[in-house]
Write a structure and sequence with these properties.
Strand order of the largest sheet: 1-2-3-4-5-12-6-11-10-9-8-7
Radius of gyration: 19 Å
Order of helices and strands: EHHEEEHEHEEHHEEEHEHE
Structural class: alpha+beta
Number of strands: 12
Helix content: 25-40%
Shape: elongated
Distance between the termini: 25 Å
Amino acid sequence: MRPDDWHLIDDVDSFLARAGDFLHSRPALHTIPLTVTEALRTRGAHAYGAEAPAFGMLERAGGICATFFRTPPHRLNLTPLTPEEADTLATHLAGLGRTLPGVGADHETATAFAEAWQRHTGATPTLHEQQRLYRLGTLTPPEPHPEGRGRIAGEQDREQLTCWYQEFVADIGGTASADASSWADTRIAHGRVTFWETPDGTPVSMAGMTPMVAGQIRVTPVYTPAHLRGRGYAGAATAEVSRAALAAGAAEVLLFADLANPTSNGLYQRIGYRPVTDFAVYNF
């Protein structure tokens, strides 16, 4: 295999025209590229930042067998690769003089690419996060059920939603994928965030979901302010948004959990989520 077996594309529509069938072939494992490319297709090339996104694919025997994308300033994202494929991609990108802040992929792929990137560029990879991808089996609402109810966040919740999104990003040590107010506006417009509220109507937790693409919806983000945790609100909100995803017709409902947080991993499994595979995120 040669580094020039990798082909770079700058336009999301051209990328999907060639790689769309490959991405649709494994909706769970490809959930991130599926949802990100859908956002870029519907909201424009700058949905995730001022710089233009970049895409690439590995073509062999007339078919696509792997892809990558990057939406600067965010990390490179990869579909599963063999160590040899990871090395050829690192060789190719390093040869083009590309700089990368990090990589995210299934655990084996991310580790193989991080090691290859270090060999070819001298950059030191640091493990930032280990995640587990879950798929919903039989939805089992949490018991005991906290008092209150779930409801879709509306225009009156814009300020609350904007604030919680900023807190969520800070909480996970991440980089916002969009301006917080724009993020809130998009989700309000499409009814994609569910609040859990107490009997007096006070929102205490939120759970969002991505648009459906390739029959899958991913639950994200799930957030409860620190002073309200431990009361079952996140589980109730997650169950409500999972029910909404099923009602929307999703064949697969997915979510990621930080493996460093045993509480959230236990919660998701209790309400019916089952492990698919582990992912890793490295910083360079």
